[in-house]
Here is the input.
Amino acid sequence: MSSLFPALSDPEAARRPALRFAERSLTYAELASAAGALAARIAGVGRLAVWATPSLETAVAAVAALTAGVPFVPLNPKSGEGESGHILSDSAPSLVLAAPGQQLPPPVSELDRVEVDVRATGVFAPAEVSGEDPALVVYTSGTTGPPKGAVIPRRAVATTLDALAEVWRWTGDDVLVHGLPLFHVHGLVLGILGPLRRGGSVRHLGRFSTDGVARELGDGATMLFGVPTMYHRIAEALPAAPELAKALAGARLLVSGSAALPVHDQERIAAATGRRVIERYGMTETLMNTSVRADGEGCPGTVGVPLPGVELRLVEDDGAPIAAYDGESIGEIQVRGPNLFTGYLNRPDATAGAFTADGWFRTGDMAVREADGSVRIVGRKATDLIKSGGYKIGAGEIENALLEHPGVREAAVTGEPDDDLGERIVAWVVLADPAAPPADEELAEHVGRRLAPHKRPRVVHHLDALPRNDMGKIMKRALGKS
Here is the structure.
């Protein structure tokens, strides 16, 4: 397989900026030299871990591992000792790559350590590897048990990034800005490896801020990646931030992922900037499956159509395909294509259970198809599909309706057992102004008028904040637990 990063071997790209974290930066020549030196030190290691802080060292470590043909496990610096211990025991890395002087907690500190010198000099010489060889092992969030390690092959990385380049018109002239964590697919694969594969550059904010977004987009950056929490903060800041609105209006591409972007925030950003935020849909196990095209119209609340090379279908509970593109028929998303992982590390049982007999991956996400073929995700099968009064109801559309009410700042919807309905719809809301709360009946009727009477919440709970993970996803299994 050819190199994942052609620009690192291209003399014409040598002086171009590749990475920037705050005041620290590397050109393509400097990155090739540092990655080449580190790759020579780790060559032949079976598997390694990367202490994935938002830093130049993490980016260099990832490129070096891929250059050496050594699969790596990005470690979340915020993980507790129990979760880190499980991941290290399961993946058994030979060593850990970390920044010089970085203090590592146990049990990570017990590994042999190689420090990443971003100014080291070496020869960039990619190892001979195949597309099926593992690139990295990314651990799932573990919402239904201990985290599982998804083995991502090199061909999945290459095909996903190339497909996104096609639909987003992503080139070496683009400058990406983001403040995403680097232990997961969104921030690391799309946000760091993506620009490097194109021969472009990335400016990492270190920590997300609307001021940082305005500064970088106002200083030549062309693309912004974020999660819904970040775009919500942008939408909240826009009325009092004309420089932010101007910067966003001048960007070539605004992309949201990792969770559904509320339509209300999408519309507020569009009204203030004239720009829409493009949504895409992916998973740890599949990388990217769908996206709105950069040159397409798109519809708020949809995640576009399947990417080139990706097959996607919706199925009933019994596995029967759903052919209707009516915006109403809910089914589980199943996908297959070169973007898929090869399996869960050390879990042949879980791997077998994740696929159908004919090779489709069961995502567990529920969606409808619109008339134009675009996908509208309504939630997770395990937590967001509510069967009430004989109807299949997706939590996502109710959440969007609640967020359209001026009295609601955040919203989540779940189902709970009901003797009459099977399940009743439960809303969990964070109020915009706790001193002037709308009546629960008003919120229920608001949903009923916008969607349908059978989709209105039967119970409303008020919270100070919704529980979220590091990627901004609402942890619904934590709702109602003290």
Remarks:
- Residues 30 and 119 are 7 Å apart (CA to CA).
- The chain has a mean pLDDT of 92.
